[in-house]
DNA sequence: ATGAAAGCGCTAACAG
DNA sequence: CTGTTAGCGCTTTCAT
C-alpha cells in the first residue's frame, strides 16, 4: 500500500510566537480571534504567521479539543452511478450547513471491504457514518461497539440492529408500477430485477406482485427475471423476453441500470412493448420513458439531517424516514398491449 | 454554524493497558502487530481492547507521526453533475491503491468559497489537493504558500502558477466537431456555449473557429451564443435559433448540460438540425446523439496519479497531461443540411 | 520481551 | 491584556 511518502514539516505556532516576540498562548489568541489581545500585538502575530507561511494544524487542534473531527463518512457504491452521486450531493449540501465535511468511500458492493471502511472511518474519528449497505448482513455495522458515533442507513433498512434509516417506498413504487400497467390493460408483464439478495429489489417486486394479486392476474409469472445486475445483461434479457413465442406486452425494470439496458433493447423496434422503470433519470423526458420517480438527493439530505441531529445530541429510539415515489407518465408506460 | 455538538469519550490505549496489566507501550506493540510481544501478552491485550470496545485514535497517531493525514482533497462543482462525479470516481479508485482517502467539497462555482475550502483542507493537513477551479484567477491556489502540499488542476490550466494539471483537449475537440459538421456539408452552424469566463469553453469555441477558418466558412458567425449556463436556457436558445428567418442547419453544444437542453428543444421536430455535443453521456447511444467524447474517469485517475507521485517524493517541474477526445458518430451529427 | 519518559502542536485552565 | 502549566492519545527513543 502506501510507500515512502515524503513528510513535510510546517511552521508551528511556537515559531510564530517566537518571531512575534510573544508567548504561545497569545499567538493562539490572536490567530483565533479571541478577545483580550492588544491590536498592535495581534498585528505583529499575524504578520509573523504570514512571513512563515503558518497554517493552523487541524489535527493537533482536534486532538486537544477532544479527539473528534468535523468529518462525516459516507460508504456507498461507486459515485459513477448517478444514484449514489445524487445521494452524495444531497448529503454534502446538508452537512455544509453545519460546518461538517463529507468523506466518501466505495464499498465495491463487498461486505468485507465495507467492514474495513467502517473501522477506518471510526479510527479517523468521524462524527457520523452514513451507509448504503452492500448486502444483507449488517452485524459488522453494529452500533453498540462504536461508542456513540451515529450511524444512518440509506436505501436499505438496518438488519438486526437499531439505527436511523432513510428508505425509499420501494413496495409502494413497485405496486404503483404494476397498477399503472394494469390500468393500461396489460396482463403479460415482464419484471426485470437486480440481485434478489438486495432488499430494495425484493420490495419492489413484492409491491408489484401485490398489485397483480389485487386483480387476480397471474399472467406475469412466466416473465419474472431476477439476478440481472448490469445494463448489458438487462438488454439481453429483454431481447430474450421479446423473442418468446408469447412475448410480454409490457416490461417493468427495477432500477436505473436495468432501464438503460431495456431502452437499448427496445431501440428501433417498430412495435415496442410498454416500459416503466424504477428510478428517474436524466433525459427520461426526451426519451419519453415512464418511471417510478423518487428524489435521491432528498434521500441524502434527510440522512444527513438525521445524522446531524444525533451529533448535536438528540437521543431517543431509531427513526425511519420513508421517501415517497410517484409515477411519471411520459409515454412508454402508456403504450397499449398489442 | 456548528452548535453544541456532543463529544464522545472513547476508551484510550492507557485504559486497555491497565486492564490487561501491561504498560502502555506493550499494549501499543500488541495492537500494532509489532515484534517482541509474548503471545500470551498479546492475547490479553487484544481481549482487553475488545472488552472496552477500544479503537485506535487516528488523530493522535497522525499528530505523533508528523501531522499529516491520509486524506486527499477534491474541490470541484456539484457531484450531481455527472462530469464531476465521474472525475471523483476515477480519483477515488486511484487513491485507494495507495491507501489514501478522498474528501470532497463543492465550490459552488464561487472563487471566495473555493479559497476558503483550500484553507480548510490545508489546515486539515491533506496530503494533496485536486482542484477543478471555478474561475480564471488562481492566485488563491498559489503553491508557494502551502509548503509542499501538491496541487493538481483538473480541466482548467493553472493561471499564473506552476502546478501539475490534467486537461481535456478542448481545442482539438472543438475543431473535430467543426470539421465533422463541415464534412457533412453544413455551413450555417450554431454554437451554444457556457460562460465565456471558463477557459475550457473558450478553447472549445476557438477550436471550432479554427476549423471554420480552414475552409473559409463564416456563415456560422451570426449563430454564436455564449453565456448559456444551464439546460433550460440552452433549450430556449436553441428554440430561438430555429425560429430565425434563416435558421442554422446544425448545432454544436459545448458541454453536457447544454446538449441536454438542445435535445429537449429538438424533441419531436419533423426536420431537426444536425447536433453534435461536447461530453459523452449516458444513453447518448439510445438517443442517437453524436458527441465529442472523452473519458472523465481517466481525467480523475491521471490527476490522482500525478498527485500521488508528488506525495511519494517526485520532484521536478510541473507536468501537464492532455486527455484526448474523439467524435462518436451516432446519427444526430450526420443529418444533412436541409 | 517489556517499560519509562518525552513530545507531536495545539487549547484549556489558571494565574499574573 | 499576557504568560505558564498541563495534557489530548499516541509513537518514539532509550533503558532494562
Automatic annotation (TrEMBL), chains A, B:
The keyword Transcription regulation applies. The keyword DNA-binding applies. One of its GO terms (molecular function) is DNA-binding transcription factor activity. Residues 11-65 form the HTH lacI-type domain. SMART domains: HTH_LACI. Keywords: DNA-binding, Transcription, Transcription regulation. InterPro entries: HTH_LacI, Lambda_DNA-bd_dom_sf, Peripla_BP/Lac1_sug-bd_dom, Peripla_BP_I. It comes from the Bacteria. This is LacI family transcriptional regulator. The lineage of its organism: Bacteria, Bacillati, Actinomycetota, Actinomycetes, Micromonosporales.
Amino acid at each position: 500500500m502506501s510507500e515512502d511518502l515524503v513528510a513535510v514539516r510546517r511552521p508551528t505556532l511556537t515559531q510564530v510566537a517566537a518571531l512575534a516576540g510573544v508567548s504561545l498562548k497569545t499567538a493562539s489568541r490572536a490567530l483565533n480571534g479571541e478577545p483580550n489581545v492588544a491590536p498592535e500585538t495581534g498585528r505583529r502575530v499575524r504578520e509573523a504567521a504570514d512571513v512563515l507561511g503558518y497554517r493552523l494544524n487541524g489535527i493537533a487542534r482536534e486532538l486537544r479539543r477532544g479527539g473528534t473531527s468535523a468529518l462525516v463518512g459516507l460508504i456507498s457504491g461507486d459515485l459513477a452511478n448517478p444514484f449514489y452521486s445524487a445521494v452524495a450531493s444531497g448529503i454534502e449540501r446538508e452537512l455544509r450547513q453545519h460546518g461538517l465535511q463529507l468523506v466518501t468511500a466505495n464499498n465495491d458492493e463487498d461486505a468485507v471491504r465495507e467492514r474495513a471502511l467502517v473501522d477506518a472511518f471510526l479510527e479517523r474519528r468521524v462524527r457520523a457514518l452514513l451507509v448504503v449497505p452492500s448486502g444483507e448482513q449488517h452485524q459488522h455495522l453494529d452500533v453498540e461497539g462504536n461508542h456513540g458515533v451515529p450511524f444512518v442507513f440509506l436505501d436499505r433498512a438496518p438488519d438486526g440492529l437499531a439505527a436511523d434509516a432513510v428508505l425509499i417506498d420501494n413496495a409502494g413504487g413497485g405496486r404503483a408500477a404494476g397498477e399503472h400497467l394494469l390500468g393500461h390493460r396489460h396482463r403479460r408483464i415482464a419484471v426485470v430485477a437486480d440481485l434478489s439478495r438486495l432488499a430494495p429489489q425484493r420490495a419492489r417486486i413484492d409491491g408489484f406482485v401485490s398489485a397483480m394479486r389485487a386483480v387476480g392476474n397471474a399472467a406475469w409469472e412466466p416473465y419474472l427475471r431476477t439476478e440481472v445486475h448490469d445494463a448489458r445483461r438487462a438488454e439481453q434479457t429483454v431481447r430474450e423476453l421479446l423473442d418468446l413465442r408469447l412475448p410480454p406486452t409490457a416490461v417493468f425494470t427495477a432500477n436505473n441500470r436495468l432501464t438503460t439496458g431495456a431502452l437499448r433493447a427496445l431501440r428501433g423496434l417498430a412495435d415496442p412493448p410498454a416500459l416503466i422503470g424504477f428510478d428517474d433519470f436524466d433525459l427520461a423526458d426526451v426519451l419519453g420513458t415512464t418511471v417510478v420517480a423518487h428524489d435521491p438527493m432528498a434521500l441524502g439530505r434527510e440522512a444527513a439531517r438525521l445524522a446531524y441531529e444525533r451529533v448535536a445530541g438528540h437521543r431517543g429510539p431509531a427513526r425511519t424516514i420513508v421517501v415517497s415515489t410517484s409515477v411519471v407518465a411520459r409515454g412508454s408506460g402508456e403504450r397499449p398491449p398489442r
